[in-house]
Write a structure and sequence with these properties.
alpha+beta
Length: 74
């Protein structure tokens, strides 16, 4: 009986960390979208980023200033 209990304990201790790790994996990770330079039709290097009070994002790029409204580039 003691031998079966030891085997059961080892199996539980070996499998529990894997099930817990699957639950933690997605917690706290932000949604990230990578845009290529063909998406915004400009250079490959961005030097600075700022956000206006209206929510628009502005990027200082090798080819000029880019504006992103969350959906499209201008």
């Amino acid at each position: 009986m003691k031998h079966a209990l030891k085997i059961f304990a080892v199996v539980i201790l070996c499998t529990v960390p894997y099930s817990l790790q699957a639950q933690i994996k997605g917690i706290g990770l932000p949604f990230i979208v990578n845009h290529t330079n063909s998406d915004y039709n400009a250079g490959t290097q961005n030097w600075s980023i700022t956000q206006s009070h209206t929510g628009f994002m502005y990027f200082a790029n090798n080819d000029g200033i880019l504006e992103f409204d969350g959906t499209s580039w201008q």
